[in-house]
Amino acid sequence: MLRTLTIALFGLILANACNAQDTVRAASDDEIILALLPNGRWAEERNLGRFKRADEIRALRRAQLEAKDWRAMNIAYLLALLKYNYSANRKRILDKYYGCRPHPYPGTYDSWDQVSELFIGLFQAGDHALLGPVMTMGPYSDGAFSESLGDFYSKALRKQPRLFLSELAKLPPKTQKIDAMLAATVDGGGMEPEMLRDVKLSLRRISRNRRDRLNSVARLCLSEVIKANSQATQ
Fold this sequence. Notes:
By secondary structure, this protein is mainly α. It has helices at 2-23, 29-36, 53-64, 69-81, 86-99, 109-124, 131-135, 143-159, 161-169, 173-185, 193-207, 215-228, 230-233. The model is unreliable at 2-10 (pLDDT under 50).
């Protein structure tokens, strides 16, 4: 009786697993590309996983053969998110970054602004080495681009303060100040109370340790955070 029950339960689990796999159905390349690149150029990474991973990779690889400009960049980005040929696809995006000549906004908008979104997506997927390149963009941003960078910087500062400060310390003093200001203002409206509390706590701890190599950039960030959020700190 026990053996029969065990077999029945195993069969039920197997059937449920098969049904779950069936919900991620096969699709044509055209259908997949339409979902992942709705306007033909910009990636919609939220749609990754709607189809079988092997099918998504196959469709993207075929589309990549003739893709150019931003379509090619976004296909490389999607393939990198799928962990397919990661190094090569990451390099495609990095090469685009290095090919952008930094000019005051809006001169680099169509280049670094778009590249930053791809870098941020890969950073959030675990590639923390891309924080450095994104932090070089602060002085060349304005408007919506500044808000996007500020939002990203502030979250990185809160969640990984030492990583953020380590990358900040590598930059020229002017860029350090601009990036610290962008992080402090977030998207222009300043930090929410919980973020402000966490950021001030970590920055004060690091800035008070004279033996910590990051204490000077921590002081800079703390000064900008207090300045940008003065009403909240009163």
